[in-house]
Amino acid sequence: MANVSIEIYERMLDHIRAGTTDLADTMLAVPAAHFSSEAHAAHERALFRRQPLVVACASELPEPGSFVTRTVMGTALLVVRQADGRVEVFLNMCRHRGGKVEMAETGRKRFFVCGYHGWSYEREGGLRGIPFEASYGAIDRACTSLIKVASEERHGLIWVDLSSRDGIDLAGFLGAEADRELATFGIGDMEILFERRYDIPANWKLVMDGAYDVLHPQFLHPTGVGKLVESNVGVWKDYGRHGQLFTARRRLAEIVRSGASPEVAWRYFASVLVLYPNALVIPAPDHYEFWTVWPSMTSPSECHVHIRFLLRPETATEEVKARVGRSLAILEEAAINEDWPMEETIQANAGTSPEVDFLYGRSEVSCQHLHHQLRRDLAGLDV
Ligand code: FES
Ligand SMILES: [Fe+2]
């Protein structure tokens, strides 16, 4: 379970007493075109294809031979647990004439057989058999293994780097602080209880913005989340590329304003760990939400959201599962009926008025962070 440190607790109490929130140094203007321009979206896609991205939870691959197939930024991948417990990621592409070697989304296999002409591959990726081999001509088996993509399993999540065939320095990518926070979550010991996928007609950054926007709950969710979470009070921990937002439950604010000193307790807080560029971990008392938000490969105006609800299997009583089910219903209610429809209006406006700037105030430090980091990375991108 995530911890609320004394530092976070005291910063939050100070903000509640003073009516303040963490501030960025300056306001940030982001061109609306960054949400609607085809050229900008193409740059972002190139960026995504050159850095670590989470493709699966480790628990989706529980034993040797367990696999999942995923299409990540247009590339078909086959993610396989090996006999020694490691995970390997391959291009899901037959070395004969390029068919997918595995069509199922998930399963467990000893080897993989391409459905087109029957070439088969070991789970380690090596070519296993070729029907009618004698009539093909000379085939160099050393050069016909499935093609590996660099991957690393860390803290219960599996990352790939589509640009690399070698390793990933994931500890370096995460940095000491995000690495430490993620380690405390224990995601490796959790299983997926619910999983939902949504296609949203809005740019991926708008969905990210909405997921850690401290300013909006009381306005956009007046009868739901806005009643539970205090708007415009946040503590932002900057972890370099990544970061973590803490917000206060209304109950905490009420106790503080009454003059009492509440104990340091997780139940008074909500938080989001933002794993740049497109993943979020949201701890809750019973479960964790894990989000990945994927840019569309064809349009700046669309994205794909994948949300998993993770739970420790030993805590999964019927009562807890029912509670987590209610959390999913509350999330869907807010996201589907309130957040995403608002983001769709922004998308439409960005499309018709790309010359305007959208403003991110100093108080919107959590939302500013993604745009600053993208600006830095896109400036250094050689495409
Ligand atoms: S394309 Fe896979 S066996 Fe021919
Ligand atoms: Fe929201």
UniProtKB/TrEMBL annotation:
Which SUPFAM superfamilies does the annotation name?
A: Bet v1-like, ISP domain
The protein's matches in InterPro entries, at most eight in alphabetical order, are given as: ARHD_Rieske_2Fe_2S, Rieske_2Fe-2S, Rieske_2Fe-2S_sf, Ring_hydroxy_dOase_asu_C_dom, Rng_hydr_dOase-A
| Cofactor field | Fe cation
Record PANTHER family: CHOLINE MONOOXYGENASE, CHLOROPLASTIC
| Source organism superkingdom | Bacteria
Q: Which Pfam families does the entry mention?
A: Rieske (PF00355), Ring_hydroxyl_A (PF00848)
Q: Does the keyword Nucleus apply?
A: no
Work out whether the entry's keyword set contains Glycoprotein. no
**Which protein are we looking at?**
Aromatic ring-hydroxylating dioxygenase subunit alpha
Q: Give the GO molecular function terms.
A: 2 iron, 2 sulfur cluster binding; dioxygenase activity; iron ion binding
Sorted alphabetically, which keywords does the UniProt record give?
2Fe-2S, Dioxygenase, Iron, Iron-sulfur, Metal-binding, NAD, Oxidoreductase
Q: Which residues form the Rieske domain?
A: 54-160
